[in-house]
Design goal:
Layout lengths: L8 H21 L14 E3 L5 E3 L9 H13 L3
Antiparallel strand pairs: 1-2
């Protein structure tokens, strides 16, 4: 999907699967698990390859070091 073009179904499914893998990672791949409640379309960013990046997940941040770790995992390790 280029700018202004409609996404084809394989692209849409790929984006949805990427989001699902990202949420699963946040819930099960991070200790302690991260559970957000603000997953909506405007909080999903797409890179130039249409790889979804989860943002603004309403994360509880107990410390600055935890914030950096969670931010890193939530944004860059969504596959």
């Amino acid at each position: 999907g280029r700018q202004g073009d409609m996404l084809r179904w394989p692209e849409r499914v790929g984006i949805a699967m990427g989001i699902a893998r990202g949420v699963k990672f946040l819930h099960t791949g991070v200790v302690p698990g991260v559970f957000g409640n603000d997953l909506k379309a405007e909080n999903i960013l797409l890179d130039h390859n249409l790889t979804p990046k989860i943002s603004k997940y309403n994360l509880p941040m107990p410390s600055k070091s935890m914030a950096v770790k969670v931010m890193h995992n939530a944004i860059y390790h969504v596959r």
